[in-house]
Structure formats: structure tokens, C-alpha cells
Design brief:
14% strand, Arginase, Chain A, alpha/beta, 310 residues, 10 helices, eight-stranded parallel beta sheet, single chain
Length: 310
């Protein structure tokens, strides 16, 4: 089977898998690299994140020892598009272009993974999924609230992306937040549409959930009112696990807490879409992007298993 134009072959695609498993006609998962970066306010380089994740994914073992299978086969394959070239498009124009890319793939009933640079790129993917899935709720794993109405006078800043999501009328569940402004706290306190699980509440052993995933993960699931779109800013993870970040913060989610949450969401309300953002690669240091590639693959396996549960 010859790959059509616009799709990456075995040496370039996510996981480095061979044909026919990387062919879009049979694959149940589409990976869309969208290397957008415009408003990064600290460390730049997130536009190189998608390619770094894909390159690192070639070293991921395809057999999942926990799930007891090769998830890419369970999906019928994983296909990867060529990176979206946004040219001079920024802010609303870039978000619209990303939505236009993602929407037809969501409509084809594939599970879509969008790899973007800064978190703003997630907005287009979220809108595309919201159009396909009535009742969608957004689960945001993140260190930051991202709820400012505008940051540095830009409503499409990476620090404002979740404010735009809430404006869409989508329920928002935030997990791992540990950096936030008074403006964002005021918004959280003024609406029932946002449920925020601060890192200090769920991860600190002295917090109300005693730092145990078994205590707080069910509360996150309970807050979900419909199928879940998972928007994953990598700084939601602890910076000791993934330090290659645009805006790092200490005290984030660990590996197994994250997997516990993903499993509960996949087996409960179900995960219907995923984006990953904010990796800013450090030259010569591959562990962060490998960890993220490995996490994406485990998420794919859990989502597939969750669909069998449903």
C-alpha cells in the first residue's frame, strides 16, 4: 500500500511503524503534528516539540507490558500527517487553521492526537471535537490556569486558551494547577462550569485528598459530565519528570498518578480526543520527549481498552 501525499512513512511517523500499519485508510488513530508557537512568554522552542516527540517515539517499545498487547495493532494502526505549515498565521487565524485540519479527521471517527507547540494550538482541536461530540467536557492537565481573558494584550495567548474554551460553553475540569492569578481565581469562583483540582489539594500528603490518587481521581471523574477531551500541557507533569518546558513549575503530577487518572477517565466517561503541548526540547537531552511519547502510547492503549469496557 502506497501512502498518499500528506502522510509520513515508517522513518518519520509516530512510533516509526511500517506499512500497512501506518496507512490512513486502515489506521484507527491519526497523529497530527501542529508546530505552532507565537506567544510563549518564558522559554521558547515549543514549535520543535512535536517533531521531538515523534523522533523519540521510535524508541518506544510497541508491546505494552501493562496492557498485555501492542496498542497500535488493537487500533488497526496509527497514521501520522505531515506537520501543518501555518506560514504567517497567528492567533485566531492559526486556531482556525488548526480546527480546519482536525475537524475532518474527527468526523471520520478516528481517534485524533494533536501534537502542538504552545497550548494555544489546542483550541482549534478542542473546537473540532466539540462540534463532533455533544456534551463534551474538557479535562486540562496543566500547571497553569490559562484562564486570563488576555495576556500581554492577546486573548489568544497560551495563558488565555482555557478562557476561550469556557467561552465556548464547554465544562472544564482542571487537574494539577499550581500557578494562577487573582483574575483566574475570580473566574473559577464565579462559575460552576470550571472544576479545579489544585496540586496542593491532590498531591500534597497534608492536602484534603491526602496525596493519594485513589482519593482524588474518582472526584475528577465525578466532575466529568460527558465524554472527555484531554488537553495535556506537559508542565502539568512534575518538572523532575519532564523538565524541557516553556513554563516549568515544581510539584506536578507523577507518572503513576497520571496513568491512574487516564485509566479512570478512559474506563469511565471515555476519552474521545487528545492534544499534547508545551514541550520545549533541550538539545542532547531526550528523556522528556521520550517520556511524553511513552505516555501518549499508553493513553492510546487505555483509550482502546476503555472502548471495549463501554
Amino acid at each position: 500500500m502506497t501512502l498518499p501525499a500528506g502522510w509520513l512513512g515508517p522513518d518519520q511517523n509516530f512510533l516509526g511503524i511500517e506499512e500497512p500499519w501506518c496507512h490512513p485508510d486502515r489506521a484507527g488513530v491519526y497523529v497530527l503534528p501542529v508546530p505552532y508557537e507565537h506567544t510563549s512568554s518564558y522559554v521558547r522552542g515549543s514549535d520543535r516539540g512535536p517533531s521531538a516527540i515523534i523522533e523519540a517515539s521510535h524508541q518506544v517499545e510497541l508491546y505494552d507490558e501493562v496492557l498485555g498487547c501492542e496498542p497500535y495493532r488493537e487500533w488497526g494502526g496509527v497514521a501520522t500527517t505531515t506537520p501543518l505549515n501555518l506560514g504567517a498565521k497567528v492567533d485566531k487565524d492559526a486556531v482556525d487553521a488548526i480546527e480546519a485540519l482536525v475537524r475532518p479527521h474527527v468526523d471520520s471517527r478516528r481517534f485524533v492526537v494533536t501534537l502542538t507547540g504552545e497550548h494555544t494550538g489546542a483550541l482549534g482541536a478542542i473546537r473540532a471535537h466539540a462540534a463532533r461530540y455533544p456534551g463534551l467536557c474538557v479535562v486540562q492537565i496543566d500547571a497553569h490556569g490559562d484562564l486570563r481573558q488576555a495576556y500581554q494584550n492577546n486573548p489568544y495567548s497560551h495563558a488565555s486558551v482555557m478562557a476561550r474554551v469556557v467561552e465556548q460553553g464547554l465544562p472544564l475540569i482542571q487537574v494539577g494547577i499550581r500557578s494562577i492569578s487573582p483574575e483566574e481565581i475570580a473566574l473559577i469562583n464565579s462559575t460552576k462550569a470550571i472544576s479545579t483540582f489544585f496540586a496542593s489539594q491532590i498531591l500534597d500528603p497534608s492536602g484534603p485528598y491526602e496525596g493519594r490518587a485513589a482519593n482524588w481521581v474518582p472526584e475528577v471523574v465525578k466532575a466529568c459530565t460527558g465524554p472527555v477531551y484531554l488537553t495535556f500541557d506537559c508542565d502539568g507533569l512534575d518538572a523532575s519528570l519532564v523538565p524541557a518546558l516553556g513554563t516549568p513549575e515544581p510539584g506536578g503530577l507523577g507518572w503513576y498518578d497520571t496513568l491512574a487518572l487516564v485509566t479512570a477517565l478512559a474506563d469511565g466517561p471515555g476519552i474521545v480526543g487528545l492534544d499534547v503541548s508545551e514541550i520545549a526540547p533541550i538539545e542532547g537531552f531526550v528523556a522528556p520527549q521520550f517520556a511524553v511519547a511513552r505516555l501518549i502510547y499508553r493513553i492510546l492503549g487505555r483509550v482502546r481498552a476503555g472502548r471495549r469496557v463501554h
